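Re: How this chain folds, sequence and tokenised backbone to follow

Filed under: protein folding, tokenised backbone structure, sequence and structure records.

Contents: The amino acid chain and a row of whole-number tokens, matched residue for residue.

Body of memo: The sequence and its backbone structure tokens, given next.
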Amino acid sequence: MSTFPIYSIDSAPSQSQPVLRQLEQTFGFIPNIAGAMAESPVLIGAFIDLFQKVHAGTFTEAQIQTLLLTNAVTNACSWAVAFHTALALSQGLTSADVDAIRDGRAPADRQHAALSTLTRAAIERRGHLDAQDVSAFVDAGFRRDQVLEVVAVAAASTITNYVGNITQPPLEAQFQAHVWHA
């Protein structure tokens, strides 16, 4: 049981309120994990800046969700796995590919497999990727610079995953169908 509150726009520290408003506009609600992040205006401010840059990068939303779901599984964050399962499905990932990622396997789609494999390796090996890792990623149709963009997505995801693991926010009703446990 977490001792961290889940803030609303009205109850959050004033410096966190604009970010919560922005997330509410983006998602149509304030995710509980953002309500927990709001306790630290420094953290939620850094998160939203990185979140915006990641979503404005070179990856499609489906590719970003592949990365985010893989990162959530690799970091064993139950809240984020459920949330990104729903978003991945809404972005067109197949149920089979989503299930594979949730099970720690590579999805069948070649590019999604390359994304999932690279980000999992980067997290598990703390960034120690080798030439073979990069070559496999590039051979799947990506560019070398996108290896570094994967790091940016992992950084945004790590913020969410660690906050979820520390604060243990309750899972919203709309994500209950996607409950996951490490």
